[in-house]
Amino acid sequence: MLLDENPLFEPSLLQELEWSNNSVPFSPPISPSNPGQGLVLRPLCTADFNRGFYKVLSQLTLAGDVTPEQFVKKFEHMKKTGDYYVIVVEDTNLGQIVATATLITEHKFIHSCAKRGRVEEVVVSDACRGKQLGKLLVSTLTLLSKKLECYKITLECAHKNVAFYQKFGYSASDETYMQCRFLD
Question: In what order do the strands lie in the sheet with 84-91?
Fold first, then answer.
């Protein structure tokens, strides 16, 4: 199984973001092009399977036991659709993924056949919390959704995280989130 550096989506999408439109302050200043010393923010690639991608995801939820073959198959599906934007922060000194978040674009018939963005799976490794990486991930995906011309972007979060997301302009809606879970 070949795990390589081929990105999930075109890295130039991140490089071309208008960071000056970011509404959240960073102190010290960081950005997608400069996330901190020894850190790189970039699209997910299959080689990240061996860089602890699942270890970071498991700090958020049950990630499951996934083989490299399963990972590559899911990666290729996501890449083919063109609707998945999984970003990671890699600690290049350790060769490990220390943070990740996902933007999914959903195509709609409403709003003149517009797109809606959804933020999912925002997680920063326990060892790297306090370095503004969560803010960086959410700011990056919010700006990316604008660049991709989504008419809105949404997310689901625990009540304790509402204040964090409000900093980025997110607000609670009048809608109720409901689910029908089939697996744990």
Answer: 39-43, 84-91, 96-107, 115-124, 150-155
